[in-house]
Amino acid sequence: MTTAAVQEYAVTDAARGLYAVTTGPDGALWFTLAHSGQVGRLVPGEEPTLYQLDPAGQPTIIVTGPDGALWFTETRGHRIGRITTGGETAQFSVPTSDGGPYGIAPGPDGALWFTEMNADRVGRITTGGETTDFPLATAGAFPSAITAGADGGMWFTMNQANAIGRIGMDGAVTTYPLPTEAAAPVGITAGPDGAVWFVEIAAGQIGRVTPGGAIAEFPLPDRAGRPHAITAGDDGRLWFTEWGGNRVGSITTDGKIEVHDLPTPGSEPHGITRGPDGALWAALENGVLARITPAITAA
């Protein structure tokens, strides 16, 4: 087995709701503070910089856009936000007034695609701020995280429909039901094997779906760990957070799972990203960004 070294960098207090993290085009880590309505930037070893938005907007998922800016969802503000690496911000309302945008990811068409949890829709926004959206056939699906697949489509989790969805650049939607009932998928990412990988927060499993829709599920050692987010690492593995288990874990493309306890009890890990230094970085709700260095061989 392997062990993972974990270093912790405090960026804020627990009350502000540190939620998601991504690597910016400037080589810094960018993160969201959902409870205080802020976006932050950290260069490890330096003091973090915080940018205030609408305090009630709830910035949630954040990604680097194709225009070299950071793009994020404001779930309660029903907006898509943009912030440059210099801190200039702009907000764009989603097509449905109470849509509740959550996931966001750059697409192969030079735009960004996002989910609207409250509206059962997937949306698209150009880098100029023009938005459109596409309805899902399933009511109450609660579309959540979204990612670009290797097949040229956008793949997303349907948390309450217990399914994975795919939307093409033409807006056509395909739905793939999960084998496990009430699995409640959340995080999703493209894997190094051409498949899409996701987490099932209620079932305690990692899932994999091929471009053709074949689904496999891999149970975690702790089925109550509540996996939340997932990303691809530089080591060929997929890395995920266990929000309820206070752990991060990895899975190989052939399904081998390893998990690693975080040093601070009750830290509640949420988002995870591959950092500019090749390590994995996780956003912990206790206000800490954790740096995870994998692949130290253990006896």
Core attributes:
Methylamine Dehydrogenase, Chain H; 4-stranded antiparallel beta sheet; 28 strands; 299 residues
Written account of the structure:
The protein contains no helices and 28 strands. The chain is an all-beta fold and 299 residues long. It has one domain (2-297): YVTN repeat-like/Quinoprotein amine dehydrogenase (Methylamine Dehydrogenase, Chain H, 7 Propeller). The strands form seven sheets. Strands 1-28-27-26 form a four-stranded antiparallel beta sheet, with no helix packed on it. The chain has a four-stranded antiparallel beta sheet with strand order 2-3-4-5, with no helix packed on it. The mean pLDDT is 96. GO terms for molecular function: carbon-oxygen lyase activity; magnesium ion binding. Monomer.
Rg is 18 Å
CATH class division: Mainly Beta
Number of beta-strand segments: 28
- The number of helical runs is 0
In percent, how much strand structure appears in the residues? Answer: over 45%
Class based on secondary structure composition and strand pairing: mainly beta
* Number of separate structural domains: 1
**Could you say what the CATH topology is called?**
Methylamine Dehydrogenase, Chain H
How helical, in percent, are the residues? under 10%
Q: What is the straight-line distance between the termini?
A: 8 Å
Q: Could you name the CATH homologous superfamily? A: YVTN repeat-like/Quinoprotein amine dehydrogenase
Secondary-structure element order, N to C: EEEEEEEEEEEEEEEEEEEEEEEEEEEE
Strand order of the largest sheet: 1-28-27-26
CATH architecture: 7 Propeller
**General form:** globular
Characterize the largest beta sheet: strand count, sense, and whether it forms a barrel: 4 strands, antiparallel
Poorly predicted ranges (pLDDT <50, ≥5 residues)? none
The average pLDDT is 96
